[in-house]
Amino acid sequence: MPYSDLLSLARSTAVKAGELAALRLAEGVEVAASKSSPVDIVTEADREVEALIRSLLADARPLDGFYGEESDAAESESGLTWIVDPIDGTVNYLYGFPHYAVSIAVVEGGPDPLSWRALAGCVFNPATGELYTAAEGSGAFLGEKQLHVASTVPLSQALIGTGFAYDSGMRAQQGALVAQLLPLVRDIRRMGTASLDLCAVAAGRLNGYFERTLNPWDHAAGALIAREAGATVKGRGDAAPNHEFILAAEHDLALLLEATLAELGD
Q1: 167 and 254 housed in the same domain
Q2: pLDDT < 70: residue spans in the chain
Q3: What single-letter DSSP state applies at residue 66?
Q4: Do 124 and 161 belong to one domain?
Q5: What is the DSSP secondary structure assignment for residue 182, as one 8-state letter?
Q6: CB count, 10 Å around CB of 22?
Q7: What distance lies between CA 102 and its chain's CA centroid?
Q8: How many domains does the chain have?
Q9: How wide is the angle at C-alpha 235 spanned by C-alphas 138 and 147, nearest 5°?
């Protein structure tokens, strides 16, 4: 199956899922449960949107695997796995902050980002209508516009995005690190939706982005979109992006930012 067909399926599914998420938000959203901590929440809309995505993908590709945030994983018989975050930025969604997304990627292999090969991905923000897409080797797009990462800048002129974990101890460490980094860069942005942060790097809206403790569904689509826009997207050293660390930026800035973070103790 050509990657363009996989991307088309990801795109159409994300748009339908986003329409459902927006409808449920208009009707009123409440917390259904907490997960890893009291601030790590899930809504009924998260579960309903993931169920819709899973159903649409299964109808079109019944032999593919599935790995989503809100339901049990299904192993692949085809060698391909769909990595899904039905509503990335659930806290933003709960508060009506217009910065949340449906994130869908299809990878060759299983749900481990250290071993998969991302083939196609889509990140859709229903609040703005912005639709980011990419397929391996075909570039990244916002709608019909091809995206290119921002040109390199000195660290002192770099606008850097990041995010914080749900665990209070890790959040304290991350806050202390940002306090050290802030005087060294143009400014810091923490917007609460990792998939859109990675797309912001792809679109040149951020010069760089880094975060720890992301799950595979948080970055599968966004990392591919950033990479196809020309960004270096990496874990520590030679590692692929993973739960421990992800960084995305123009190549020279990526290396400089990674070295700076290491010096600061991250």
Answers
A1: yes
A2: 1-2
A3: E
A4: no
A5: G
A6: 17
A7: 9
A8: 2
A9: 30
